[in-house]
Every structure is written in structure tokens, then in C-alpha cells.
Amino acid sequence: MAERMVGKQAPRFEMDAVLANKEFGKVSLEENMKNGKWTVLYFYPMDFTFVCPTEIIALSNRYDEFEDLDTEVIGVSTDTIHTHLAWIKTDRKDNGLGDIRHPLAADTNHVVSREYGVLIEEEGIALRGLFIISPEGEMMYSVVNHNNIGRDVDETLRVLQALQTGGLCPVNWKPGQKTLTV
């Protein structure tokens, strides 16, 4: 039986990554926490696929909005940093990513994908999981869906903003609307 993650401390991670400047580096939850940042951690199945670039590019295109919300965005697959870099260096018209504004991390040993409950063991790839983690390291939001379906950046931003209100947000709450009072 799967164990609940929301409301608990998120599994800590440090992974090799291709940074936005196309250099190799590291990303870690501890670093984001130390800097008082929220974390949007999303997993995708593989580089050089078809749905994945639509999501990665859409998240990158909205990066300023995440940055304005003191949030670091990190994409993760089980591919290597070298494959990530090759995909970034591939033009978008050729199913590449081109320049993106957030890091892509490499979970080649599958530890992080397994800890976050998104690893398809028999295939060695991740499901599409998205997690929002507070600056204190608490897992605030978790959604996992089938690999055939891309995620909605507007909804990710809406949920992040709702969580940052610290209030009770009713159904269909949108940024700028009042929260509920008790």
C-alpha cells in the first residue's frame, strides 16, 4: 500500500543536473530550503519523447511567474545529464527543447523517482509526477498521472499561489480572490 506523502517532510534529494546556463551542476531540496524557496519538482518519463517537451517548454516559458513566487522549478527523468544536454541543444523544430530556464536533473540510479513513488520499476522510467514542497520541506501537493497526458501550468501556478496564501481556498479559487474565514 502506498504511503501518504502530503503533510509530511518531503524526501530530500541531491541530483546532478543541467542548469539553465547549460552547465552541469547539482540541484538539491536542502539548498532550496536554505534559500527559503518553494520547490516545484516534476518528473517526466524520458528525453526525446513527444509529450515531455510540451510540458518542459511550457514550464520554462512561465519561469518568471514561478520566480516571482520564490519558487525553484526542477524537472527530473531517469536519463543522464548528457542526454538532457543533447536534448536542450536540439532545436525545437527537431523535437528538442532549445533554451530552457530551469534545470533538468538526472535520476539515473532511480532513487529519487522511487522515493517519490513515481518509478515504473520494470521500465526504469518515471510517471508524470508533480510535487510542491514548502520552504520548510513539507510536501504540500502531489499529483501523478499517466504518461500520455501532459500537465497544466496554469493549474500548477494556481495551486502554488493557493498554498502560499496560508488560508482556506474554496473550489475554483483564483489568485486575488478572498480565502475562507473560519
UniProtKB/TrEMBL annotation:
Q: Which keywords has UniProt assigned to this entry?
A: Antioxidant, Disulfide bond, Oxidoreductase, Peroxidase, Redox-active center
For the keyword Electron transport, the answer is: no
All copies of the Thioredoxin domain together span 4-165
> CDD domains, alphabetically?
PRX_Typ2cys (cd03015)
Select a single GO molecular function from the record's annotations and give it: peroxidase activity
The record's EC number reads 1.11.1.-
The record ties this protein, via InterPro entries, to: AhpC/TSA, Peroxiredoxin, Peroxiredoxin_AhpC-typ, Peroxiredoxin_C, Thioredoxin-like_sf, Thioredoxin_domain
PANTHER family in the cross-refs: ALKYL HYDROPEROXIDE REDUCTASE C (PTHR10681:SF121), THIOREDOXIN PEROXIDASE (PTHR10681)
State the family it belongs to.
Belongs to the peroxiredoxin family. AhpC/Prx1 subfamily.
Q: By what name is this protein known? A: Peroxiredoxin
Q: In which organism is this protein found?
A: Cytobacillus spartinae
**Upper classification of the organism:** Bacteria, Bacillati, Bacillota, Bacilli, Bacillales
